[in-house]
Amino acid sequence: MDIAYIPSPSRGVLHLGPIPLRAYAFCIILGVVAAVWLGSKRWVARGGAKHTVGDIAVWAVPFGLVGGRLYHVITDHQLYFGEGKNPWNAFKIWEGGLGIWGAVALGAVGAWIGCRRRGVPLPAYADAIAPGIVLAQAMGRWGNYFNQELYGRATTLPWGLEIHKTLPDGEVVNGVFHPTFLYESIWDVAVALLVIWADRRWKLGHGRAFALYVAAYTVGRFWTEWLRIDEAHVYFGLRLNDWTSIVVFIGAVAYLVIVGKKRPGREDPASIDPAAHAEAEAAGEKAADEKAVAGKAAAAKAKGEGPSETVAGDKPSRIVDGDGRAEADPQPAAAASAAAEKTGKDAENPI
Q1: Banded pLDDT at 261 (limits 50, 70, 90)
Q2: Which end of the chain is more exposed for a tag (fewer CB within 10 A), N or C?
């Protein structure tokens, strides 16, 4: 009886004429969009301006991409440098190879620059964007699926991943392996939900939501890294990324405990984003202007179209122009003229 394993795509790129559309890059872009969208919603809910997260991301994303690629090239330098290797391949980011540790580290530098330019505290920004970052990682892992890379050990489990590819050195790989990209993607979504729940439950602030994301992510990364069989540096029986996960996990937990004791709670919403005050003032001025315009329109309508006051039995004055001035009735004017021509007893007793 054949088992229906997860098939891998035959290719990870489509060509639109001369333009290549690479699935790996598309997954990265989708992840960035999702991170900015979710981060913006959380930032506004904390009292920030709606465009702040996107403006800071303009700095954080390029730095993160460069950092992720640098970490990969440095830790896997044997793939690009040495006899028979082409160093220019180190720039082919679309072929895969982004180290999350370098991406977060250098991305944080870009975010710090953007935060300073906006007058925003970095820990508060990191807390808002944390679930979005790990959600972006979940989407980015599907780029590894399309590239048929970073799979785990051979398996007979029904959710095994079929791999049929030829490596750069000419070795042909055919078999069924653990879909570590899928394991990590599912774990990342769970971490995002955990951070959102914990943040609502305990009002995490001052960088603690971000630290929780880092600690939870490293636990899953340690396990999936242990399953992988791609080439990596091994120290004392563990892959380099496993050791990195251990060190980063300890640092994240220590930060959670120390900051939780020193600065419990969350930042004052009024203190995290100067742009939010500007937006509120602009919205207030706009509302006031609209109210004033509406009031003037109502007054002009009442003045130009409303009936004039009349005495019972008299005829109303006729409106001759839009400013509300009334034309005098011709009959009282004629009577006054006739009375002026009378004298004596007739003048004292007008008809």
Answers
A1: very high
A2: N
Q: What is the largest CA-CA distance in the chain?
A: 135
User: Any long-range contacts for 34-39 (C-beta under 8 Å, 24+ apart)?
Assistant: 34/132, 34/135, 34/136, 34/139, 35/129, 35/132, 35/133, 35/135, 35/136, 36/132, 37/132, 38/131, 38/132, 38/135, 39/128, 39/129, 39/131, 39/132
Report the pLDDT averaged over residues 94-123.
Answer: 93
Q: What DSSP element (H or E) covers 238?
A: strand 238-239
Closest CA to 101 of 137, 127, 59, 152: 137
What's CA 310's distance to the chain center, in Å?
64
When pLDDT is cut at 50, 70 and 90, the band that residue 254 belongs to is very high
Three-state secondary structure call for residue 161: strand
Q: What is the pLDDT of residues 158-201, one digit of tens each?
A: 999 999 888 777 788 899 999 999 999 999 999 999 999 999 99
With a CB cutoff of 8 Å and minimum separation 6, the contacts of 230 are 149, 150, 151
Task: Report the predicted TM-score, pTM, of the whole model to 2 decimal places.
Answer: 0.79
Range with the poorest average pLDDT among 6-15, 126-135, 312-321: 312-321
What single string gives the DSSP state of each residue in 71-123? HHHHHTGGGTSSTT--GGGGG-GGGS---HHHHHHHHHHHHHHHHHHHT--HH
